């Protein structure tokens, strides 16, 4: 069946396409192809042989002893010409293109419901099987992260004539993206363009992007309409985000570069990139970060106001982000007043330091209400997937002991058509967590129409992990593990992330209880 599908698609393009002569008139369209139906990196050796050279695998190393890390282009000056001067680019933009292998990639995925069916169809029929342009369809697909590798293609004289940018999913190693980057001049063009070719069996997909220096040293890559229309201005389509950071000794992320509104071309400026210099402070620990989780009983009007207008950094200096939600009882019937308790609020927040927390609790109107309840201060340890609202969190910040207490927080944005399915699979998990002997507190919260969160305090990391994987005791309980399998089959959410924290200190009481966090 797959053979017939591939054969049929090739026949279609030969029928509707135009014959070209790659040896002479159309040599500018000559690009690598794959000899097999699975692309991956199998095209590299043939491409190097075409140029009479080799693939410089050693150049992919980023260790200082290996010399400068390779880039997608040997130098940005290869794009110089009328209307473009690489010397005007911001140094960080040049560094990325000239030393791409020294940058680490983090990616997270979420699709608009309008585009998801078509994307899923392409991924199932072609992308995953062919291992080319295999876009992640669900946030969990990239939960373990993505590896990025640059392999330089050199000609017989040792000059870089192309660079393969290969991206694979962890831990499976499945190829997501395999592209060949170079500089190439279009017929009649006054200066070179960035040329990207994506090899396919007996063919390829090509994009030509004309470089323009933007305001403040940013780089705009575009392909305006004209006689040769090999591409278009780069725009955001499905909501797939990626962050790139320069490799550093400490395993922390840089803050994300601000992005424009949906549908707008991405034009990074030096002003946008300037705050990346804060990365050194973040990695050296000079910018501390703390999270808090609050529970309080409030008048319904106060809770409703917080749901509609949660605190922000404008009114609460030092606050990075806050999620305000109404509590719901774990395991409650699907249609029940216990599913939306407007007199009981939960707030999950990220702060720059503890002084900001103290200031908020003493000076802010909502903060004073929360101060009368209970809260725990948390040290961030790890995440699975990510939230767009918290872009600067590294995948992991350190280790932990299997016998120490731990706090787990999950935040998700629901796909509304999937709510019935989610309730069918989620309610058994709610009861499993609620009744587990390893939890000292477990609850859920909601902010209509689509945000849900869970919060649980565990006596030990070991007990929590055994529950997650369904491995505890002689009679393992796989309700959580089975729900995760179903979620991987078809996601319930637009966005989903689970966070692990080390509890630092708890304050106040909740439902007459103190000492909710076990002593380590």
Automatic annotation (TrEMBL):
Residues 227-268 are annotated as: Disordered. CDD domains: CrtA-like (cd21650). Residues 253-268 have a biased composition (Low complexity). It comes from the Bacteria. This is Spheroidene monooxygenase. Residues 230-249 have a biased composition (Basic residues). InterPro entries: CrtA-like.
């Amino acid at each position: 069946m797959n053979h017939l599908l591939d054969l049929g698609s090739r026949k279609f393009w030969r029928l509707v396409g135009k014959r070209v002569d790659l040896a002479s008139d159309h040599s500018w369209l000559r690009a690598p192809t794959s000899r097999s139906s699975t692309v991956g990196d199998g095209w590299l050796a043939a491409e190097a042989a075409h140029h009479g050279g080799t693939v410089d695998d050693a150049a992919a190393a980023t260790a200082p002893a290996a010399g400068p890390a390779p880039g997608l282009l040997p130098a940005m000056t290869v794009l110089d010409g009328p209307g473009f001067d690489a010397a005007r680019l911001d140094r960080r933009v040049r560094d990325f293109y000239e030393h791409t292998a020294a940058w680490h990639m983090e990616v997270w995925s979420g699709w608009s419901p309008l585009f998801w069916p078509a994307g899923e169809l392409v991924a199932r029929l072609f992308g995953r099987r062919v291992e080319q342009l295999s876009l992640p369809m669900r946030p969990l697909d990239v939960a373990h992260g993505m590896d990025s590798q640059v392999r330089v293609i050199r000609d017989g004289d040792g000059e870089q004539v192309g660079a393969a940018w290969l991206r694979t999913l962890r831990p499976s190693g499945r190829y997501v993206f395999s592209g060949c980057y170079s500089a190439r001049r279009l017929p009649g063009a006054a200066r070179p363009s960035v040329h990207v070719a994506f090899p396919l069996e007996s063919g390829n997909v090509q994009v030509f992007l004309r470089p323009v220096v933007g305001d403040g040293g940013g780089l705009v890559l575009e392909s305006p309409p004209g006689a040769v229309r090999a591409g278009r201005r780069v725009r955001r389509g499905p909501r797939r985000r990626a962050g790139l950071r320069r490799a550093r000794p400490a395993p922390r992320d840089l803050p994300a570069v601000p992005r424009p509104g949906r549908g707008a071309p991405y034009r990074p400026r030096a002003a946008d990139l300037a705050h990346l210099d804060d990365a050194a402070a973040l990695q050296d620990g000079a910018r501390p970060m703390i999270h808090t989780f609050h529970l309080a009983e409030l008048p319904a009007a106060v809770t409703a106001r917080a749901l509609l207008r949660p605190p922000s950094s404008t009114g609460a200096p030092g606050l990075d982000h806050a999620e305000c939600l109404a509590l719901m009882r774990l395991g409650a019937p699907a249609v029940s007043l216990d599913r939306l308790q407007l007199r009981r609020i939960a707030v999950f927040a990220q702060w720059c330091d503890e002084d900001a927390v103290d200031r908020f609790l003493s000076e802010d109107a909502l903060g004073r209400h929360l101060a009368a309840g209970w809260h725990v201060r948390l040290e961030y340890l790890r995440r699975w997937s990510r939230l767009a609202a918290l872009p600067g969190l590294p995948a992991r910040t350190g280790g932990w002991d299997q016998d120490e207490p731990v706090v787990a927080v999950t935040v998700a944005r629901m796909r509304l058509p999937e709510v019935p399915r989610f309730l069918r699979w989620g309610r058994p998990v709610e009861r499993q967590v609620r009744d587990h002997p390893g939890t000292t507190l477990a609850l859920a919260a909601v902010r209509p129409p689509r945000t849900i969160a869970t919060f649980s305090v565990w006596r030990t990391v070991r007990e929590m992990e055994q529950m997650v994987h369904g491995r505890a005791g002689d009679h393992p309980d796989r309700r959580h593990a089975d729900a995760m399998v179903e979620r991987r089959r078809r996601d319930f959410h637009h966005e989903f992330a689970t966070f692990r924290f080390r509890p630092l200190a708890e304050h106040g009481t909740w439902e007459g209880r103190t000492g909710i966090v076990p002593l380590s």
